[in-house]
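Two records follow; treat each independently.
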Amino acid sequence: EVQLVESGGGLVQPGGSLKLSCAASGFTFSTAWLKWRRQIPGKALEWVSTINDAGDTTHYADFVEGRFTISRDNAKNMLYLHLNNLRIEDTAIYYCAKAATGRTAEQLGQGTQVTVSS
């Protein structure tokens, strides 16, 4: 059974930073493409970033504008998202996700709340 457990969310002031972590189990982590998504209150779930299995290719949504960094540690089965220069509009629940494959749908964790407020 795929398990994805996010942590690291919290309350931060505008311009601040957070590091989100995602502990994964139940699948072959080193061969999985992974993502971060977020859901802003009242809006649909949106894609934030993707990292390939080796960790050497990353993609980001336009709104990231160089402020976030996705990374992974295949030895520890961990996915990370460094959030820098946070804005009030980044307030959301952040989810890590195992990307869909030809045989399985995308699978998300339970999420971690990030609140940016002065």
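The next record belongs to a different protein.
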Amino acid sequence: VQLQASGGGLAQPGGSLRLSCAASGFTLDPYAIGWLRQAPGKERERVSCISSSDGSTYYADSVKGRFTISRDNAKKTVYLQMGSLKPEDTAVYYCAAGLSCRLLDYWGQGTQVTVSS
């Protein structure tokens, strides 16, 4: 079971990035997939999650209206489209899988997102 996050980088305030979370070694369909982030000196924050059953989504208030999560089970990939980026979005972003958005047990390596002018 492996998850690989990619797509991070440097973006300007107001810009956008798309993160990808690719699964290998297992089928994505039964799992909820979440994106979490951790900035230096701050607690880990659950940013977004998409369920396996009905595709329902969750967003933290801090990203609501700016980020969009989606999944492509055939490609075994979950995406996080990030827009209107702010410096406070700077963090390492991780994707994780689990039986529900409250139980994300399998973690991948993170990808760094830096928002700066």
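Discussion point: The mean pLDDT is 95. How would you locate this feature using only the token line?
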